[in-house]
Design brief:
Layout: E1 5-8, H1 16-29, E2 35-40, H2 43-49, E3 56-59, H3 69-78, E4 86-89, E5 94-99, H4 101-114, E6 121-123, E7 136-143, E8 146-151, E9 161-164, H5 165-173, H6 184-191, E10 200-203, E11 208-212, E12 214-215, E13 218-219, H7 221-229, E14 243-246, E15 261-262, E16 274-276
Parallel strand pairs: 1-2, 1-4, 2-3, 6-10
Antiparallel strand pairs: 4-9, 5-11, 6-9, 7-8, 7-15, 8-10, 11-14, 12-13, 14-16
Helix pairs in contact: 3-5
Length: 279
């Protein structure tokens, strides 16, 4: 599969080693993925981009080293893209550990051939609040032979997923110009209203597992171990005590055919995120 879709990476120059780790893990877990990762230009990004020919694109943004860098950086990475275009939204604080490609690749193909207008986002990681019916709607659909459940709001937007540009742009357009920290965006997400024509969906069962890279400003134990197996630990990062995996190991996929709406039914039980301090 040749690169054909932008991967929008929320990152900054100081965290570029984690962005590169995330890119490395996609290459390992999904060697034929279709993404060209877009990152804000800067000295650290330029040093890294040469190691990933054809897979990294650097764009000038209004990213600064302080307040407001998140909104400006994301909008800059989206600036030349049409509203209905699709991107892979992938922040540097997550990286893939396991992917059920039998479930994911048919949806990639369905998106490439033209997903319905009421599909503006597809999340493969059914975990955390995606297990709570309060954050789901009664809507059901099939895409690429996979069952989807409607999401009622932006919860779990920080987990890697497919989004139309308009969904991501509208969300960040609504953020204030100045944001003191990444954590502040969690509160903004909780109060943001999901437009009625920006349908967000989640697979009815878990198909991916992600590792979380940092917690409270320190590397997680799982990320540190993964970095050691790859390019090594970057300087300037402390290692914390927690090990955080999001979504348990994906199971076998079921096969469906066609693309159609289904009547409302109870959500299929799925797996929870794993958060543990054990090795």
């Amino acid at each position: 599969m040749t690169p054909s879709m932008p991967g929008i990476v929320l990152t900054c120059q100081a965290y570029m080693p984690l962005a590169e780790h995330m890119i490395d893990r996609y290459a390992a877990a999904w060697s034929g993925h279709p993404f060209t990762f877009r990152l804000p230009d800067g000295p650290a990004a330029r040093a890294m981009a040469g190691r990933h020919p054809g897979r990294v694109e650097l764009l000038p943004t209004r990213e600064g080293e302080g307040r407001g860098r998140f909104r400006a950086a994301v909008l800059g990475l989206l600036a030349d893209l049409e509203d209905d275009a699709w991107v892979w939204w992938c922040i540097d604080d997550k990286y893939p550990t396991r992917l059920d490609l039998a479930s994911i690749e048919p949806i990639v193909a369905a998106i490439a051939s033209g997903a319905p207008a009421d599909v503006s986002g597809v999340l493969f990681c059914r975990c955390r609040r995606m297990l709570d019916p309060a954050y789901l709607t009664d809507d059901r659909a099939m895409l690429g032979g996979q069952q989807l459940l409607g999401r009622s709001m932006y919860q779990q937007i920080w987990i890697h997923q497919f989004l139309r540009v308009k969904a991501l742009r509208t969300l960040f357009d609504g953020f204030p110009e100045t944001i003191a920290s990444a954590k502040e965006m969690d509160a903004l997400i909780r109060s943001a209203r999901l437009p009625g024509d920006h349908g967000l969906w989640v697979l009815d069962r878990n198909a991916v597992q992600f590792g979380e890279s940092t917690t409270r400003g320190r590397l997680t134990r799982n990320c540190a171990a993964s970095l050691r197996r790859g390019r090594g630990l970057p300087p300037g990062f402390e290692i914390g005590a927690e090990r955080i995996l999001i979504g348990r190991r994906p199971g076998l996929t079921a096969a469906f055919a066609g693309l159609f709406r289904q009547p409302s039914r109870p959500a299929t039980p799925a797996v929870e995120a794993s958060r543990t301090g054990m090795p």
